[in-house]
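Ticket #4471: structure export looks truncated?
Reporter: QA, pipeline team
Priority: medium

Steps to reproduce: submit the single chain below to the structure queue and open the exported record.
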Amino acid sequence: MDGILLVDGYNVINNWPELSDLKEHDLSYAREQLVADLAEFQALCGISVIVVFDAHFVKGGVGHSEHYLGVEVVYTREGETADNWIERYAVQHRLASQEEKNLSLFVATYDWLEQRIISAQGAYRVTPQELRQDMQKIKNIEKMRLSSKCERVLLDHHLSESTKKVLEGWRRHKFSDF
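Actual output as written to the record:
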């Protein structure tokens, strides 16, 4: 699957029960777990993932981004919400798409207003539950693919009789037969 997936990080954390419970004890670890799960999804399906975390209440916070496990992680600046950042990105993506064929943009959020805004920009909305189901489905497909039995391919089946004879001679140290 080609495309870009923007994830409203705290929105997803708050809507996935296992991460919501985790954030009550350690918000930082909940963020890391979300990014790790998204990194696995990115690796399995080939979509580029950008996860955006609000930092608009952080006094003097300057926005920055970093790559963690291959996922771009964005922290917004003071006064900027993840919604604001995602909306701006969607507009820029739409404008770039008008000039050249661009990748599809998907946005994962439960925020109804945000879903409407990004849809108006040509992006596809994905609820956190749909994202979770897609991630689980991709994992299950990969597990099945890896666990399916492979047929044994023996080298012996691909060698000519003369080559087999030479190799057997080497194995038995009968060099005089050559």
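Status: closed, not a bug. The export was complete when the record was re-opened. Leaving a note from the reviewer for reference: The CA atoms of residues 167 and 176 lie 13 Å apart.
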